[in-house]
Design brief:
- By secondary structure, the protein is of the alpha+beta class.
- It is built from 2 helices and 4 strands, in the order E-H-E-E-H-E.
- The protein has a single domain, classed as Alpha-Beta Plaits, CATH 3.30.70.
- A hairpin with a 2-residue loop joins strand 2 and strand 3.
């Protein structure tokens, strides 16, 4: 399975109390296709630069998940059918930064004798 991140914009009519329900719907669609959601971050309501389809703002969320590459297209198609979802952008998750090297044993630790 590959790691992906999806920026999801929910419609401005979505109430704050309905946020969890909307995210659970997205999680359910990913899990139906055999994927797993690793994290979900709420980014809040933001104004658009210009109105799109009579919408002036949207509720943004970032969902990190693992899914087979050939199932990303069907997942996006299923999310487009959801009335709460305004836009979806899926990208391959950036690789984790490398861990810093461990200090060598016996190396000078900077303590003067």
């Amino acid at each position: 399975m590959n790691k992906y991140e999806a920026m999801i914009i929910f419609r401005e009519s979505l109430k704050d109390a309905d946020w969890d329900r909307a995210v659970e719907t997205v999680r359910g669609e990913i899990e139906k296709l055999g994927g797993t959601v690793t994290s979900c971050t709420r980014l809040g309501r933001r104004e658009f630069a210009r109105p799109m389809q009579k919408q002036r703002s949207g509720h943004y969320g970032l969902v990190a998940f693992e899914l087979d590459g050939d199932k990303v297209g069907p997942m996006q198609a299923r999310l487009k059918l959801n009335e709460d979802v305004f836009r979806v952008q899926v990208v391959v998750a950036p690789p984790a930064p490398p861990a810093p090297p461990a200090p060598e044993k016996g190396a000078d630790d900077g303590i003067a004798e």
